[in-house]
Amino acid sequence: MKQKVRRQINFNEQLRVINSRLKQEIRQRKKVEEELKSAYQRLADIIEFLPDPVFVIDKEKKVIAWNKALEEMTSVKKEEIIGKGNFAYAVPFYGKARPVLIDLIFMEDKEVEARYSFVRRQADTLFAEVFAPMVYGGKGAFLWLKASPLYDSKHNIVGAIETIRDITQHKEAEAILKKDKESLQLLMKERTEQLLKVQKELADARHLSEIGTLAATIAHELRNPLAAIRTAAYNIGKKSDDQRLKPHLENIDKKVAECDQIITNLLNYSRIKTPHFAEVKIHQLLNECIAQTRQRYSSLKIRLRKFCNCKENDTICADAVQLKELFNNVLNNAFEACEQNKGSITVYINYQPASHVTVVIEDTGIGIPAEHMKHLMQPFFTTKQKGTGLGLAVCQQLVNLHQGTISITSKVGKGTRVTINLPAVHDRS
Amino acid sequence: MEKKILVVDDDKEFLEELQETLTLSGYEVKAISDPRKALAVAMQLKPDIIVLDLKMPGMTGFEVVNKIKSTPVTEHIPIIAMSGFFTAEQDDSLLSFFQIHHYLRKPFNPLDIIARIEEVFKETAHKRH
Ligand SMILES: Nc1ncnc2c1ncn2[C@@H]1O[C@H](COP(=O)(O)OP(=O)(O)OP(=O)(O)O)[C@@H](O)[C@H]1O
Ligand SMILES: [Mg+2]
Question: At what angle do helices B38-45 and B61-69 cross, to 10 degrees?
Answer without folding.
Answer: 40
